[in-house]
Amino acid sequence: MELLSLLSAGEITSVEVTQGYLDQISAEDGAVGAFLHADVDLALSKAAEVDRRRQANEPLGRLAGLPVAVKDVLCDTQMPATCASRMLENFRPPYDSTVVAKLKEADAVLIGRTNMDEFAMGGSTENSAYQLTRNPWDLERAPGGSSGGAAACVAARMAPLSIGTDTGGSIRQPAGLCGVVGLKPTYGRVSRYGLVAFASSLDQVGPLALNVADAALLLETIAGHDPLDSTSLDEPLPAYSTLVERPLEGLRLGIVREHFAEGLNPEVEEAVRAAVAVYESLGATVKEISLPHSKYAVATYYVIAPSEASSNLARYDGIHYGHRTDISAMQAELATEQKAFLAAGDQIAVDNMDSPLVRMYRRTRAEGFGSEVKRRIMLGTYALSAGYYDAYYLKALKVRRLIRQDFDAAFEEVDLIAGPVTAEPAFKLGQMSGDPLAMYLVDLYTVSANLAGLPGISLPCGFTTSGLPIGLQLQAAPLAEETLIRGARMFEQATDWHQRRPEKKQS
Amino acid sequence: MALSRDDVEKVALLARLQLSEAELDTLTDELAQIVTYVDQLAEVDTGDVEPMAHAVELSNVFAADGVRPSLPREQALANAPAHNERGYLVPAVLGD
Amino acid sequence: MIEIVWFLNSQSAKVEVRKWHKSMAEDFTTVIGLEVHVQLATQSKLFCRCSTQFGAEPNTQTCPLCIGMPGTLPVMNREAYDLALKTAVALDCEIPEFTKWDRKQYYYPDLPKGYQISQYDLPMSSGGTLAISDSQDQFEPKQIRITRAHLEEDAGKSIHDEANGKADSEIDLNRTGTPLLEIVSEPDLRSPAEAKAYLQELKLLLTYLGVSDCNMQEGSLRVDANVNLHLETDSGSAATPIVEIKNLNSFRAVERAIEYEAGRQYRVWQETGQKLGEAPKQTRGWDDAAGVTRGQRSKEESSDYRYFPDPDLVPVITLPEQVAQVKASLGELPAALRQRLTTDFGLSEYDAEVLVNQGRALVDYTLRVADLSGDAKSACNWVTQEVLRVLKEQGRSIEQFQEQSVSSNDLAELICKVKSGEVPSARARELFDVMAREIYVSFEDKLSFEEVVKSLGIEQVDESELIDLCKELLGANPRIVADVQNGKQQAVGALIGQAKQRNPNVDPGQIRKLCLELIEQGFGSAE
């Protein structure tokens, strides 16, 4: 990447680069709201350290001196990790996540923590307990989510690289809506250790950047086997940052019949079809394939993800860390209730009252979680509860395998699958609130990759007439990130969509 | 399956969430709508399909036994809402 | 109905309790199943590398994982799995090729994640057996079926300081994540004595396997008992609702609690006639001081654990070859060892039990002594009587004893020399005690067997010497001779003491015999 070559050539210092991005954050982030936390002193002191070491000709890491923004969901001993939740407002992790540790090892300058939907649940970043993030292309619109801050900060040039997480599309969808590149690796490719879990069997950490080459570089930095994560893959790690520049020969590109059903915005469809034509012009053969179970993907996802989430979020109980309700207020509430029941002579209600401990849990969690998190905890608890497990959770696990088998069959015939990231470009802030199901259906094209564990990438492939970015999604077989980035880079080098930038928001 | 307000109340206890009457009403509607959508899974024939609980199906991942340093107690308790420098404090745990 | 005889035999029952038991003894059978939780002897916890050492200051053996902090992930301790597998194989369980871990979800302050990692529908083992018997014949030998044994993590501890009356409990997470093997029996036990025998046999097996220290005081072995009654009534068979008894802190407590609970259920049955299925399963805690079980508050919803496969852990595949390997490496287990001691070495069941119960090292010592001396019975007698006595007095282990004092060679030599008469049996125990008393720091310092014999002046006494001595004593004690002739044979006893003073190597039995013979022959008579 260009900035890195300038740094290593000594033509620019890390302090200068870092200060440049910090200035951009001061200028832009008041309007965009991508960052929850930025530690200027920490960033500049790290940058100065890298500069000093470079001067002294000491060995430096792969990203030496380059600013990277991190979604507020990965533990870092030097930063808060709020997950955009009141629950973890004051939480300071006593350990580094593997991804953060690798970034530190690579001498990256961690400039700040980006906004997100609370606990990564949502597709608009509106579920943050702290602030709204706006789409740099249109401040009235959402940046997508849950990694909305991660995508917006790259789009607004407030960070050259950023780390997001993707459970049902949370990297690819905001990348698509913000006109940047976002890559979700194969499940197990990047360690989840220190990533605050939403749905453990679906969560994956990945890079966001302005182009595919930068994304490849960041992926190479954070990927690899981690003995601290039992689900981490012990597989060789290709040198993505160099391989990315080799176009694919004889690429077989798949187009999914079911992707072009009703509901797809015509401008989006047109841009995606045009992208496919670009591939054909580059020598790819295009084949229509079918993923017959893809229409069940959202339903499957909205059983599995909330089920796992309901369990993963049980730990937020106000005992060992995080928010706890006010105990005297809780006791007063119980006393008042009991008095009322007794006055009414309702002994059964008195007997059924919460114990102080149960009430403490219930108030703590009611106060600490926002409405979307509560909704998913409720949904997941219901799906796992006695009498419903087989019909929902177990059934969803079976359909999940059918979805995976569809992909396995498809990748016998094609190398990459191309399609839209979302059916519509960026939607207006507030447009989806009050209709959770409509919000869930935004994930239509992205959730399958998470269910099947496949890698996927979103890259800019056009703009609507109103100037909103349109994303192209490519998906590959498990562990075929190399094919994915080489295929994506081919397209990027044949087009200039990724070079457009939104207007400055403030001066 | 129809989801009643009563069901939602029971689930809220299981999930240790306190819900206001208004939240109960909204959630009953929203969850019922989502559950109805999810009910379409019933039409998929999954007769002899093995459930898939993991995205990548690994097995036998172990770590070797052996002690490594624990967190200093101060750090362990640093995030606790209430502690006495020895342990986490909670309102009496008498017969939950 | 053999099953209920325990009421009458039970040595532990208080008299007043026994009375009302007796009156209903013909009416019911007590049916018991046990759930045993054993802490496995690993150095570090099941899913992190914190120490499992007991007794540390609260919250000094925790890390982000066992505190349940966000973002942490479990990785399974191989040793814990291996120890669990070894135990399951030793219990003759089926080991399926595929096993997985599930989350059991409930809220409690000592469970920081809000779920316990355990095993639900596909445990690592199922369908085993453990044979129990009683050398005192309180019950017939029987096979107790093991439903399953599975690997899970322990919770922390809540400490409530009742004394200061404050409303706060203190949570200590040191124990959180310690590997536990849960061993569940079928309801095959029919009396407190059988339950105790099962627990003793299980503990012995675990000790032989070296998979746990089984220390109940430290909570390494914990027991819950499921108890109900099967009754024969005029209208056919019936059963009472099952009660799970918790807080059983010793085997004695298990016996007492079951005994109490059976009586309590019978009284409730007589009052209410409530049958199994007509009331939910109840949990009761044992109050050891009061000697009663007490109902514990439980909410209907608390039993909905919402188990599902833990997405953070991967399954374990165990191939039949691995199981065979584990089986081959188990060594001789207590039941087989007892069998061998009785059939091959001719020990009584009781002796075999005493020996085997003392642990593998003592059995090995005994077997070496038996082998070297060629006299299994004597070897066993020496060990069960003298060696065990000395170990108890000195508080030493058999390992220390044989290294520092009496090796298996020494004891075998002693047995042989006694048998050949080279060491008079009268002085054998004295000799043993001298050897046992010495604690040699190094082998070079150690006196040889011969040297000890010599230092004590032990030598064989031949019969002619003995006859001369007896004659002399009888001649000097006409009064005693007269007493014997008048039928007071025990009067000879005084002569034995005198003989031992003259020569410590004499055999008192032989002196007695010779003296009586000489008097019979008329030696020393007044006439």
What string, H for helix and E for strand, traces the elements of chain B in order?
A: HHEHE
Instruction: Using the coordinates above, name the CATH class of the domain at 5-43 in chain B.
Output: Mainly Alpha
List the domain count of chain C as a whole number: 3
Q: Which quaternary structure do these chains form?
A: heterotrimer
Number of DSSP-assigned strands of chain C: 17
Q: Greatest interface and its residue counts?
A: A-B, 74 and 53 residues
Number of strands of chain B: 2
Distance between the termini of chain C: 70 Å
Approximately what portion of the residues of chain B adopt beta-strand conformation? 5-15%
* Name of the CATH superfamily of the domain at 5-43 in chain B: Glu-tRNAGln amidotransferase C subunit, N-terminal domain
- Estimate percent helicity of chain C: 40-55%
Low-confidence stretches of chain C: 1-26
What's the shape of chain C?
elongated
Name the structural class of chain B: mainly alpha
pLDDT averaged over residues of chain C: 87
The CATH level-2 architecture of the domain at 5-43 in chain B is identified as Orthogonal Bundle
Tell me what the structure shows:
The complex is a heterotrimer of chains A (507), B (96) and C (527). Chain A has a domain at 2-245 and 423-472: Amidase signature (AS) enzymes. Chain A is 42% helix and 12% strand. Chain A has helices spanning 2-8, 14-32, 40-55, 98-105, 148-155, 172-178, 212-222, 240-243, 266-281, 297-312, 327-343, 347-351, 356-368, 371-384, 390-413, 436-441, 447-452, 481-494, and strands at residues 35-37, 67-71, 109-114, 161-166, 181-184, 204-209, 252-256, 285-289, 416-420, 456-463, 469-476. Chain A has an eleven-stranded mixed sheet with strand order 1-3-2-4-6-5-10-11-9-7-8, with helices on both faces. The two termini of chain A are 27 Å apart. Chain B is mainly α and 96 residues long. Chain B has helices spanning 5-14, 21-38, 73-77, and strands at 62-63, 88-91. Chain B has a domain at 5-43: Histone, subunit A (Orthogonal Bundle), CATH 1.10.20.60. The relative contact order of chain B is 0.08. Chain B is flat, with a radius of gyration of 22 Å. The mean pLDDT of chain B is 93. Chain B has three helices and two strands; from the N terminus they run ααβαβ. Chain C has 527 residues and is of the alpha+beta class. Chain C folds into three domains: 2-317, no CATH class; 332-455, no CATH class; 463-520, Arc Repressor Mutant, subunit A. Chain C has helices at 6-9, 15-24, 78-90, 192-209, 251-272, 320-328, 334-343, 349-357, 360-373, 376-394, 398-404, 408-420, 425-437, 449-455, 463-476, 478-485, 493-502, 508-520, and strands spanning 28-39, 76-77, 98-99, 102-105, 115-118, 126-132, 142-153, 157-160, 168-172, 179-185, 221-233, 236-239, 243-248, 282-287, 292-295, 308-309, 316-317. In chain C, the strands form four sheets. In chain C, strands 1, 6, 7, 10, 11, 12, 13, 14 and 15 form a nine-stranded mixed sheet that branches. The longest helix of chain C has 22 residues, at 251-272. Chain C is elongated. The relative contact order of chain C is 0.09. The A-C interface holds A 74-75, 81, 83, 88, 91, 93-95, 97, 192-197, 199-201, 227-231, 307-308, 310-311, 314-315, 317, 319-321, 357-358, 361, 381, 384-386, 389, 393 and C 64, 67-76, 103, 105, 107, 109, 112-115, 171, 173, 304, 306-308, 311-314.
